[in-house]
Amino acid sequence: MKKVKPSIDGLRVRKKGDRRILLLKVAAGHFRRIGYEKTRMEDIAATAKVSTKTVYNYFFNKQNLLIRYLEQDRASMVSAYEKIITHPSIKDPAETLARLVHADIGEVRSGNDKKLWRELLAAETRAHRSADDGFATNRKVFLNVIERALLQFQKSGQLSRTIPLPIAVEMVYAISAYNFRQYCAIDTLTPEDVLKTARVQMKILVGNWLCVPRDFKNAGWLESKELELQKQ
Length: 232
Fold this sequence. Notes:
Layout lengths: L7 H27 L6 H8 L3 H7 L3 H25 L6 H11 L7 H17 L6 H22 L9 H21 L5 H16 L12 H13 L1
Helix pairs in contact: 1-2, 1-6, 2-3, 4-5, 4-6, 4-7, 5-7, 5-8, 5-9, 6-8, 7-8, 8-9
């Protein structure tokens, strides 16, 4: 069978993609070593052995580079999110949400990884000034995953359809964001610690959202049943 050679345009796109990944990797290395604020686009160019103009051709400023790095990181975790919300054996809403919170750690494992993310989170906080900027767009990826998970449990009858979904989604996201910041701030915390904590948090949170079976909605029935059990 004759092999099809890749087109010149295809090779150009691939080369451009590879260089973009390299520049992001180099930038992350500088952020980790000397911090986001002290890193210059010229430093990234020198380490990557390209011109400063080339760096600006890919990222029009350092904030744009930061947004693209966060975007790349989020994209790398989408498959993990999908596996959790589509796995047939996970039928417990609290457990599913806890696993999503755990998955949001991504590949942040070592002390150096945590140091990098402390820099990234601080830079993001300082730069995020609009509800529709690049940081907000990146945030929507995980918000959409949480919303899909909650909708799935509403449709299955496990979560009440009366819960204010946008607020519920934001609450889960807020807990996840807090846990991630704590995880990055404390070197001794492990991913397993985050999962353990998230399981407790989500059970408490979701406890108020669970559907009450129809047979149990009658308060009088509940009171009589409780008295009956006490007599036994």
